[in-house]
Each structure stands twice: as C-alpha cells, then as structure tokens.
Design a protein that fits this description.
By secondary structure, the protein is an alpha/beta fold. Helices cover 48% and strands 6% of the residues. The protein has helices spanning 2-15, 48-58, 66-70, 75-81, 109-116, 122-136, 154-160, 173-188, 202-205, 210-231, 241-246, 248-259, 282-295; strands at 38-41, 144-146, 165-170, 235-240.
C-alpha cells in the first residue's frame, strides 16, 4: 500500500514541480548561523531515515512534508499555513525511505533533483536558496533534508548553500551492502538490477556480480562524501547507525550541541534495536565479506 501511495505522490509531484513564486528575487540570507540548513548524507540503507525521524522528533527544525512535496509550486505558502500540523511525534516504519502521511517528512526526490541536479542554472540556484531561507527564517528553525541522492551532489549544494552543515550517517558496510541487495530484490524482483545512488564509474561495476556492486556502492559513496569534507571547510558530524540505535539520546545530543539546535523538552527517546542480522544465503554473505575485504 505504501508503495502505491508513493507512486501516486510522485506522479502528482511531477505535474506541479515548479518553484513557489515567493522564491523569486535576489538571493536571501539566513537570519543567523544556527539557522543554516542541514543535510543528512551517507549510503542508501545506512539508517538515514531513522536519524531523520529522530531529529524531527527531538529538535526544532523545518522540513519538506509529503504535502509540500506534492505541490512544490505552493511549498512556502503550504508551510506557512500548515505549520501547526508539521509536528512530528512518533517514529514510523519506512518503505525504503518513504514515510506515509501528508505531514510526514518527504525525501522530495524530484524536487531535490531539480534543485541540485547538473542542469541547474543561476536562476534556479537563487530560487532554491530563497525557498530554503523562507522556510527557515520565520521560526529560526533550520531546514533539514534527507535524500541520499544528494550524497553525490555535494559540490552543487555547496555552490548554492555554502553555509550548509552535514550529518554523515554510516552503518556496518557488510549489513549496509546486504540491505541494498535486499532492496534490489524488493523493488525489481531480482538482485541483478542497480538500485538508488549511482557513483561515478558505476557502469563498469554493473558487469560484476551483485555482491561486488553493493559493497562498491557503499564504499564509493562514503569515499565521495569524505573527499568533499576534505576539500571544503564544511561543518559536519559523523553518526554511526549502530551507536544511534544503542544510545539515540547521546547521538542526537551530539548533533544538537555541534549545530546549536534547540531540543524539544520532555520528549522521551524510543528504545531501538539494531537491525543487523544475516538475511541472505551464506554464499551471498560470504561474497559480500570477500569483496569488502578486497575493496578496503
């Protein structure tokens, strides 16, 4: 059911994927450093959706909801008039990153592809920046985004939003790779078709076995992110999925402290379990381990 709703939402979104007229004008500035936007980055299936939900539940931030994602042409207006409903309270089970509910956080795939894609122009850049500033400044709550395709668009994000801050979530690469393999099976019915983010050079990798592909995908995305951090003086923090599950309060408090966020008082932290268990054949698991050791 969630997959059907997601497909319908994407079709509607594609018809209204234009900028809100309120984003017109020269580039705007953020009211203060603590309002600078935050991007969650990492490999797909690394625990990013869980981290995204925890930050929305425990801190004062703004985000793109599914309703806003449906109508980008009225995104700023919708955010302004529905702000009281954008109160994320309970963690939800996601469907490969998709969370159901009009006011649930959206990955906003086609929106962010337009915002940070290779075809973006100077005019688009100004509209992107102004949209995020206008979503942020009324409440002084920083905009937060989770779309892991952006892990390969960091240079473009940096051009538009040099103030941006990043949370880099990492998971045990063996289980991260396994989860990618299982996602392929769920989406396509086979592990032989590529799914999600495509690092530079992936075409050559598709000639090799699926276990190699998913290990390479995880490691290459993480290398791309690390190279970006090494190149630019961006404010970033690394979070482990395993530690996030063991002690979510400690992990969120690290981010709150480093990024000067405002915590929501009296919100209890959930008891989380680490979903790292072998769910594929022993042969496939052995291949993942083999290729991981070879590629390190």
């Amino acid at each position: 059911m969630m997959t059907v709703l997601k497909d319908v939402a994407l079709k509607i979104q594609s018809k209204f994927n234009r900028f809100d007229p309120l984003s017109d004008g020269p580039p705007l500035q953020f009211a203060q450093p603590s309002s600078h936007p935050i991007f969650i980055v990492g490999a797909p299936r690394s625990g990013s959706t869980l981290l995204y939900q925890l930050l929305l539940k425990h801190t004062h931030v703004t985000y793109i909801s599914n309703l806003m994602s449906l109508m980008p042409i009225r995104m700023i207006l919708i955010a302004k008039h529905t702000s009281r409903f954008h109160k994320f309270k309970d963690l939800k089970e996601s469907d490969l990153g998709y969370l159901s509910g009009l006011f649930s956080p959206s990955e906003a795939g086609s929106i962010q592809r337009k915002w940070f894609g290779a075809q973006s122009t100077a005019a688009i850049s100004a509209k992107v920046r102004n949209t995020i500033v206008l979503l942020t400044n009324p409440s002084s709550a920083p905009f937060i985004s989770k779309n892991l395709m952006n892990s390969l668009r960091l240079e473009r994000i940096n051009q538009i939003l040099p103030e941006a801050r990043y949370v880099f979530v990492r998971r045990n690469p063996l289980f991260n790779a396994q989860s990618l393999l299982l996602s392929r099976k769920k989406v396509f019915g086979t592990v032989n078709q590529w799914w999600s983010a495509k690092p530079s050079g992936y075409e050559e990798v598709t000639r090799l076995d699926p276990e190699y592909q998913v290990v390479w995908q995880v490691l290459e995305i993480e290398k791309t992110i690390t190279r970006f951090f090494d190149k630019y003086s961006t404010q970033n923090i690394e979070i482990s999925y395993e530690e996030l599950c063991r002690n979510p309060q400690k992990s969120i408090e690290r981010i709150v402290t480093q990024f000067d966020l405002k915590s929501k008082p009296d919100v209890a932290f959930d008891n989380l379990s680490i979903r790292n268990s072998i769910e594929i054949s022993q042969e496939a698991w052995s291949k993942i381990k083999h290729w991981h050791d070879k590629l390190l």
